[in-house]
User: Fold this.
Amino acid sequence: DETLRSLADKNGIYIGAILNSQWFGGGLPGNYEQIHKSQFNIVVAENEMKFDATEPQEGRFNYNNGDKMVRYAQQNGMRVRGHALAWHSQVPGWVNNYKNDKKKLLAVLKNHIEKVVGHWKGQVAEWDVVNEAISNNEPQWRTGSVWYQGIGPEFIDSAFVWAHAVDPDAELCYNDYNLEQGVNPKAKAGFLLEQVKRWVKNGIPIHCVGSQTHVEDTTTDKHFIGSPDSLRSLAKELAKLNVKLKITELDIGFKSGINVSKSDLERQGQTFRQYLDIILEEPNADTYLIWGVSDKWSWLGGLNRQKGLIYDDNLKPKPAFDSILVRL
Ligand code: XIL
Assistant:
């Protein structure tokens, strides 16, 4: 029988879902792992390669959970995406001790990137080097992060340079959300595009943009903020710069508490399919990663959303699963 994975392989693309180390500790239904490895050819750790997980105390690195996932991927012939090196969130408390010491903070970030990328060199094929560094409200950098406040925007360029020096074969991405809301100078994607142009011009090693694509189906008349069409426009602009577009954290949730009807689930499936169209049709787009497997285990509750994934609470495929399977 065809699976997402076998069809993705035929199409020369990656389709995947996150892994979470808690799931390896038991407690998952018996068919979970079977589903996961038969349907997907790429994985990303939900939390296990983040700063707080890999360097919980200064200079003391912990790769155990990340290693487990890399081993799982290797045993099952899957590609591994690394997530994420420089991000404002999930940074351990000790880093903030240095927020007024630019030199020290630069050294902390450089050492972190060198150690983590070095540890998984040759095993992690691509990294989110910088995650969510753009403001969500206005076209400019996010100013609240410890990295921005302590170092300034140059932490971004430097992070790419450091990662590339350690693993010149790894694909290096800038990753962010709300990139499907238009490619104009006032939107996040427009601001990002200007930065990508500058990076390319200046020889900063950036190979891909990750679009998280956490979108919401509002079930109102308008249904969506943002659209697959505008993400496709971004892909086309990036192609001119020889930079790839990847969908890295897809989920299409409904508001918590509302009743989700069969036709809502069908529309959700069409939207999943429209985002997949980009990956299948744009030559510089190669990855379709979903931020979870079953609606039962999803971060979306924290966003006041629900039912954003392609398997239901009982690990049964939803209309969204069928819709992408048929398209592949
Ligand atoms: C989320 C995880 O899913 C949660 O388990 C964690 O508590 C918080 O982070 N953008 C990202 C991801 O880049 O790392 C986030 O993952 C979701 C939003």
